[in-house]
Amino acid sequence: MKHKGFRSSSVAKAILLGLALLLLVTAVQAVPAPQDNSVLKSPDGKGYRFDVNGWVYLHTEGAPYERGYQHGYLLAPEIRQQQDAMQYLTYQDTGMPWEFFVNQSELMFTGHIDPEYREEIRGIAEGATAAGTPVTWQEVLALNAEMELVDYWWPTVQSNEYDNLVDHEHCSAFIATGSWTDGGKIVVAHNTWSAFEDERFCNLIHDIVPEKGNRILMQSIPGHIDSNSDYLVTSGGLMITETSIGGFTQYKTNETPAFARARKAAQYAGDLDTFVGIMQQNSSAGYANSWLVGDRKTGEIMRFEQGLKFSSVNKTKDGYFIGANYVEDPRIRNLETSGLSGTDIRGSVAARLVRLTDLMEENKGRLTPDRAKEILSDHYDVWLEREQPSCRTIEGRCDLDPKPQGSPFRASGATDGKVMDSAMAANMTLTARWGSSSGLPFDAVLFLKKHPQYRYLDGYLPSFPTQPWTTFTAGDLPGQQEIDTTTHLPERLITLPMGL
Q1: Any idea which fold 10-60+165-494 has?
Q2: pTM of the model
């Protein structure tokens, strides 16, 4: 698709100018907070946390219960916030109290999780309780399984169909290697999509040093033992991300939940085949994904599409794979999903497939982490054929989209960006930006004034100010991060059309 000029009447121009000025004012006010160099340590002195540029950095280590206790103790305030949000938002979204899902998680999953992870979950609960946030291990288990319970299991029980299910369209991503990248390194990039009221908890960078298995550096959520947002690097040499499969309609009870399989694969896999094998063990299909995984030791990358009955693996040492909530396997697409289109560019999936493919082709041989940042920041809408943040752009901004396939102006989309290459992975390093890859801010107060239909989110909807790209490494301490001090709202965003 080629860009076409944007034309408007004088009235429309005036409206757009006002919106542009509003965006500029928001950007100028959205200055990163001063760095807090204080470190909070766990009682045993092994775990610690600090805050930087919107992120919480957490280090835990040791035996399962030990590292869990460190986790819960250090993140007790954030776990309390999640408790409050789950109790309110789950009821709003399902009509069922959060306690219902807590009880169900114990019944469904306790016997299907390895003892190591049951102990880690118990440690999180007892650590948080000791730090002033009373929480049971059953509640922590439910937090880990929330997406599986609410988005996959509950609709099959509630109606046996997915007609009323919130979409599973989360994330844009790519992985490339060989002649497609600068120097032949593997490059992996990802941004997380979700409702903003949920996504505010995804600002955790967790450095885990388990007693056994791989060290893991991952984006995560307080209280979770896996990444959940699925961007991570391991000492076993794997670079891992994914995008969920849109419209997925299958679920199998009495199997291992996705979060436990994903954590185990990260901790114990040292090659691509072992990763697939662990993910396939007793799969519930509770978080059906197109996994994009690279092995920095070999330069090989993989797309692993995992449904329930069907799955497929494609590997290459010279090529790329993209993630836009689509699935290439015809069996999964036709027999295990509903309403998933890779051709209707009025929708998010097909539009991003087209744009990501275009950008991969345009950047062949030049893909680097810096180039990946630009791709994650892209706002070209192939349906409108112009620069316009929307549900159809790689950095999705549904809050600015008056004509999505769902409700207009939803407070959802992408609010982070993560990039790395295999050289960074060898050092257990990744670069991340909290808020959005492009720096485009979101002001919750202004949003609710303009769109009062979403006022039920007042008090739960966060703002996302402009933050700089920040580079994290396993074992970091405050002040050791490389920060892009030139980060600011790009000129092209100041004059960007914000409406039709």
Answers
A1: Penicillin V Acylase; Chain A (3.60.60)
A2: 0.89
